[in-house]
Amino acid sequence: MKVTLKIWRQPDAASQGAMHTYELDEVSEDMSFLEMLDVLNENLNAAGEEPVAFDSDCREGICGMCGLMINGEAHGPEVTTTCQLHMRSFKDGDEIVIEPWRADAFPVVKDLVVDRGAFDRIIQAGGFISVNTGSAPEAHSVPVPREDALRAFNVATCIGCGACVAACPNGSASLFMGAKITHLGELPQGQPERDERVVSMVAQHDHEGFGGCTNIGECTAACPKEIPLDVISRLNWDLHQAMRHGH
Amino acid sequence: MATTTLVKGARASRSTITLKLLMAASGILFILFVLAHMYGNLKAFSGHDAYNDYAEHLRVMGEPMVPREGFLWILRAALIVALVVHVGSAVALWKRAHRARSTRYVVKKNKASSLSSRTMRWGGLTLLLFIIWHLVNFTIGKVNVSGGSTNDPYNLLVDTFDTWWMTLIYLAAMLALAMHLHHGVWSSAQTLGLTNNARARRNAKTLGWILAVVIAGGFSLVPIFVLAGVITK
Amino acid sequence: MTDMPDTTLTSDPSHDAPGDHGDDAAGYYTPGEPIADTKAPGGPIEERWQTRKFEARLVNPSNRRKLSVIIVGTGLAGGSAAATLGEAGYNVKSFCYQDSPRRAHSIAAQGGINAAKNYKEDGDSVHRLFYDTVKGGDYRSRESNVYRLAEVSTNIIDQCVAQGVPFAREYGGLLDNRSFGGVQVSRTFYARGQTGQQLLIGAYQALERQVAAGTVTTYTRHEMLEVILVDGKARGIIARDMVTGEIETHLADVVVLASGGYGNVFYLSTNAMGCNVTATWRAHRKGAYMANPCYTQIHPTCIPVSGAHQSKLTLMSESLRNDGRIWVPKKKADCEKDPRDIPEEDRDYYLERIYPSFGNLVPRDIASRAAKNVCDEGRGVGPAVEGVRRGVYLDFSAAIERLGKDGIEEKYDNLFDMYARITGENPYETPMRIYPAVHYVMGGLWVDYDLMSSIPGLFVTGEANFSDHGANRLGASALMQGLADGYFVLPHTIRDYLADGPFEPVPADHPAVVEAEQSVRSRIDHFLNTKGTRSVDSYHRELGNIMWEYCGMERSEDGLKKAIDLIRTLKDDFWRNVKVLGTAEGLNQSLEKAGRVADFFELGELMCIDALNRRESCGGHFRAESQTEDGEALRHDETFAYVAAWEFAGDGEPPVLHKEDLVYTAIEMKQRSYK
Predict the structure, then answer these.
(1) Nearest residue in A to B92, CA atom
(2) Of B90, C141, C292, C531, which residue is 20 to 30 A from C49 by alpha carbon distance?
(3) For residue range C409-428, what is the model confidence (pLDDT) as tens digits?
(4) Which CATH superfamily is domain A116-244 in?
(5) Could you tell me if A167 and A176 are in contact, meaning their C-beta atoms sit under 8 angstroms apart?
(6) What pLDDT does residue A180 have?
């Protein structure tokens, strides 16, 4: 099949960017979306134009490195990562608009590549359990109710791709943050630092320039791991509790 | 790349979530107020005297503990503070959201958000304008668009809603209120951290629907029945 | 401890007499001096690690801040080491090429992590895990290292649980285990199909905690391009900031490589797009020995290639073979038919036919090779890519009949979904198609018991080293090794080396620094100035085809010699004709790939030489010349019970082979059989 691609090109963070249009023939529906871009890049390289820069690594939907805004939807029309999106989700003759994640906290590095270092710093602020190597007690010394472990697991599946931020009209990272708060907050091991964790993470989130949450749910609809909105409620709850405890 | 700064001495009270919490708390106060206000309005169905008695009662409520209109002024003060908090937080969050994405998308689809959630800001602004007019109409200025007297609350009400375009304005405002409540109720439950599972989320959304329909519907009855000639002088 | 007999090497009567196995690689290499691990203490195997930990010198806590450590890679091995050394108070610099440490490819591991906890009271023990791992590695690993791995495995689980890793649990709130990879005990801890992700996030969080504490500095989107040796010791690296293009010098007292495996030499593999050999290869060129590079693990249940555009392969859990039946049509003419229209009598359930007792559950290498054989015969199914159909059916219709669709859905739902998403076919209705793919490499830089390479001060952990898996890795053992190395082994062994530090500061204009920086710059300039006609990817794909064809599942003397010629020709062409656009200043993904592919050429050649030299079949390495009458792998312990550690001798010079003899004191060597 044949597609028309409108792609954001921006040489580097300091330069102005613009949309460029490319025609691509002989696209197979078995190609993944990124393989389609690989083919485009081979063509561009042959024609002497610098290939389009985009991030991807594992290409099996788990590392969280890839992420493109495709026709106005984070990761495109399916509930999955960009790397697991296949061209059979498109039709012959389609026009596909490809943009980078847009958030001032995720500055564009080049073309479709953005810097998501803000997520690392939110984790640095408190997204962990303080336990030095070797100081852990025997694994069975603290039983964890199966339901709690399951709930923790279900939100620990967050891959940190940033689709929630990209889809949120406010550019908020509440879903990402809520997933970590909930993961660690569901487990007995996460209790001692629960108050400090939420206060520090939220402060870092705001400091990075993410917007506030308005509970409209675009994030969870875009999330390739289907993290539910519960986690934001949990985040809010934990913050109130921390306030009550004098933080 | 080497990392940039981490926040030192974080305070929970200085967060965006605190702003949301203030919006939720002030919003809940508004909901309680409009419920009581709606109840009062429905007194119009009981006729001229019942309605005016009710209006007078609001003024003398709490006497002699508080002077005449004292209770009313306490309520007004609380509502004004709530309004300042609600609007102030909204403006702060709005500005923040704007800064969080200074470059817009060329194409952006909405996958999950309801119309009411997306219109909270403009809908809120509409409600603010309406409230100003509403106060001019009935409280501060007391404007009778049909030129009649303004010192009788019941007659002022009937005169106002006998004018078709006034009823239209009020009904449009009630639509905006319904939408604002529909998302606002759910959103405040979420902000208060009360929706930690799918069932609680469904319940909060249902409550949003119910309050939206009951409040906006309840307010709309009087103008409609005045215009229809059921409630008359 | 079990009462395993203390037996040394015994010979198997079915083997050829010693000396029969020729010297296939003659002319391709230079014999060197034998080497040995000098760090493992003697004595009973159970006591060696305790002894070593006691003998390794300590570093005063107040001195640690003055000692700097560079760690390249942030996967399980690198991330855990950076966190632990940071906690200890060392000054750590952590590098990764991804945009965040959390993205390292450890994240993609599905199955689980082994640990000898014996929570099921089913006869498991440290000794049994040790025994299974050595046997699974086809007796080509170093026993001291493997025993230590089994010993610290239990600490890993404790550590991860305390970090908040959400392992699967039973109703009583205790940890659940499953049996995995054909072993008879349940010792695999798991977090649904995403164990690697959860373990890595645990290590990542521990690492980020140290970043906040100021002990670790992370350098993301940085690629190590050279190691700096001063007076024979590793003292730093040259890294390129992939965003600004800046060539940076980072100096330290010690360098740790935890940069993962090199499966991407095959172009198509289950590795991430960015996985590469550059860090370890640059170290190899500076004197670190590369051990057993030909040991490659090929996983039988991957989704087949769908066309020439294919960029990577996706693995599906091996557990699918528990219920799926593998077959191809008996007649070539049927290969294009809808599989549902092929009657039972025209299907060849070849694994069940050849291996009646193990059937579809034969080990990974056997299942993989059998699939290749039937496809080479022309009985493969699915789309023909470059003229050959490479795929076999994995059929669940019998299982669906037996367990119902719901039963299958419950067991394999996410795998079926993944298959459907990638192929566009519904596996509940038509049989899945599978084909083997390169998955893991057992080979890597040679290290001693302390995990130090042949370059003093250069330590190597995780998949990047060769030490624990021999010729074949068991399922759920890669995660165990990565975390064992990073959390519990390296922090103890590295202190013995650091006890002599801090070393003399290296000035920025030291000749070794200038030389390393120059060589990096000149390579980059070369790629950008060649202005040839072919893209980097096209070279990589061609190299991968050569490797897969001749150094893949089955290797032969003729094939390997041919491959070496082909690689050399292609490499020459690459250096003359590659086309890399853009500049060195800023993000340039073609430029990054060019450097990686350049190193893959050299590695590929060495892999072929190593495979050529090892005229035996063991684990993931199968030589056509060394098989039983039934076509099974045949080891030659008298000749090849050694680690082949290759020394770089200069461009165009044959590499030097150093042999480390493998001596087993706690285990007896046996030939495996799955008939």
Answers:
(1) A212
(2) C292
(3) 877 877 898 899 999 999 99
(4) Alpha-helical ferredoxin (1.10.1060.10)
(5) no
(6) 98
Neighbours of chain A (3+ CB pairs under 8 A): B, C
| Full domain range(s) for residue C358 | 299-438
CB C287 within 8 A of CB C648: yes
CA distance C603 to B69: 90
pLDDT for position A225: 96
Is C209 designated active site? Answer: no
Distance from CA of B169 to the nearest CA of A (A): 28
Closest listed residue to residue C621, CA positions, set C19, C269, C137, C14:
C137
| Cα separation, C30 vs A170, whole angstroms | 65
Tokens 């871009």 -> residue: A37
B12 contacts in chain A (CB < 8 Å): 198-199, 202, 239, 242-243, 247
CATH, residue C530? 1.20.58.100
Question: Looking at beta carbons, which residues of chain B come within 8 Å of A235?
Answer: 17, 193
Helices (H), C462-535: 478-483, 490-498, 511-530
Contact yes or no for A59 and C311 at CB 8 A: yes
Per-residue burial over C552-567, b if 16 or more Cβ lie within 10 Å, else e, is: bbbbbbebbbebbebb
DSSP string, A23-72: EE----TTSBHHHHHHHHHHHHHHHTPPPPP---SSSSSSS-----EETT
Statement to judge: residues C414 and C493 lie in one domain: no
Query: Is the Cα torsion angle A166, A167, A173, A177 positive or negative in sign?
Result: negative
Structural domain boundaries, residue B162: 17-97+117-227
Q: Alpha helix (H) ranges present in B61-197?
A: 70-100, 115-118, 120-138, 153-162, 164-191
- Contact predicate C649/C655, CB 8 Å: yes
Q: What class has domain A3-110?
A: alpha beta
Give B36-95 pLDDT, tens digit per residue: 999 999 999 999 999 999 999 999 998 889 999 999 999 999 999 999 999 999 999 999
Whether C484 has a pLDDT exceeding 80, the answer reads: yes
What is the ipTM for the molecules in this complex? 0.98
Test B93 with A170 for CB contact under 8 angstroms: yes
Pairwise CA distance, residues A20 & B106, whole Å: 12
What percent of chain C has a predicted confidence (pLDDT) above 70? 96
* Record: contact C219-B2, CB cut-off 8 A: yes
Lowest mean pLDDT among A72-76, B11-15, B93-97: B11-15
- CA dist B114 and B117 (Å) reads 5
Structure tokens at C120: 């099921």
Distance CA A76, CA A86 (A): 10
Q: Which of C48, C364, C495, C615 is catalytic?
A: C364
Least confident of A185-199, B140-154, C131-145, C431-445: B140-154
How many other C-beta atoms lie within 10 A of the C-beta of residue A177? 29
Q: What is the CATH number for C201?
A: 3.50.50.60
